[in-house]
C-alpha cells in the first residue's frame, strides 16, 4: 500500500512537471508576437491605407466608417493591437515588404514607447517566458508575482487557440476590418483613479534618451523607407485628463514624448497630425483616459476625412 502511495505521488509530481514544461513550451512558442499575426489575414485584402499602432489604433480607427465616406474611394484596414510598439510595426512591415511599399501607413503612437516594461516582452524582441522572468522591469510591473505571470501565460495560450485556431478573432475582426468598437463613456469621477493606475504601471517605468530613443528613431526611418507614405498621429486626450495628469506631475511625460515625435518627424520628413490638445475631443468621446469610444472614433475619422489628407 505504501509503494502504491509513493508511485501515485511520483506520477502526480511527474505530470505536474510535465504540465509546467508544456506551459513554458507553449508560452514561448505561442507568445511570440501574436498581436499582428492575429490580423495578418487582413493584408490579403485590397487596401490603400493601413492604420497601425497599439490599443489606441485598435480602438480609434473605425475603418468601415472611413471607407464608406472617403470620396477618393480609398480602402483602409486596421492592424492595431494591444502592446504593439514601433519595433513590432517595423518588423511586420519588413516581413511583408512587397505589400506595404505602395501603401499609406498611419501610426498612432503614445508615450508607452518609452515605458521599459513595454520592452520587456515579446511585442518587441520575441522573447519568451525565460527572458521575461529575467527582465527586472517586467517583473517589477507584476510585483514579482510569479502566479500572475503564469496566469498571463494561461491567458495568452487560451487566447491563441480561441482567436487563431478556432478563428474567433477573424470572425470578430472581419466585419470591422480590424477595428474594435467600444460604446462605454468615461465619467469625470473615474479619472483620478485611472491616472493613479497609469502612474504606478506606466510612468514609473518611463525612460527617455540613449538606446531607446535611437531604436525608436531608426525604426521610424525604416518604416518610412518601406512605405509609400508615413503619417504619425498623436492621439487626443481630453482637457479633464490633461488637467489630472498635470496635477500628478505626469503631463510632462506626454508633452516630452510628443515633442520627440515632432522633432524626429521633422528630421525624417514624416507627416504629423497632432490632436493631443484638440478641444473637440470631449469626455463623452472616451471610454477611459486614453482610449476613444465609438463616438470618439467616428469623430476622429470625420476629422481625417474633412482634412482630405488621404
Question: Could you provide a short overview of the structure?
Answer:
The protein has 310 residues and is α/β, with parallel strands linked by helices.
Helical coverage, percent range: 55-70%
CATH superfamily: SGNH hydrolase
Strand content: 5-15%
Assign the CATH topology: Rossmann fold
**How far is it from the N-terminal to the C-terminal residue, by CA?**
78 Å
Care to describe what's here?
With 310 residues, this protein is α/β, with parallel strands linked by helices. It has one domain: 3-Layer(aba) Sandwich (Rossmann fold). Helices cover 56% and strands 7% of the residues. The protein has 16 helices and 5 strands. It has helices spanning 2-30, 34-37, 55-60, 63-69, 86-95, 97-100, 122-125, 129-134, 136-141, 146-165, 168-176, 191-201, 210-225, 239-247, 251-268, 294-307, and strands at 49-53, 76-78, 104-108, 229-234, 271-274. Strands 2-1-3-4-5 form a 5-stranded parallel beta sheet, sandwiched between helices. Helix 4 (63-69) packs parallel to helix 16 (294-307) and helix 5 (86-95) packs parallel to helix 13. The longest helix is centred in the first third of the chain and has 29 residues, at 2-30. Mean pLDDT is 77; it is low at 27-35 and 119-146.
SSE arrangement:
Layout: H1 2-30, H2 34-37, E1 49-53, H3 55-60, H4 63-69, E2 76-78, H5 86-95, H6 97-100, E3 104-108, H7 122-125, H8 129-134, H9 136-141, H10 146-165, H11 168-176, H12 191-201, H13 210-225, E4 229-234, H14 239-247, H15 251-268, E5 271-274, H16 294-307
Parallel strand pairs: 1-2, 1-3, 3-4, 4-5
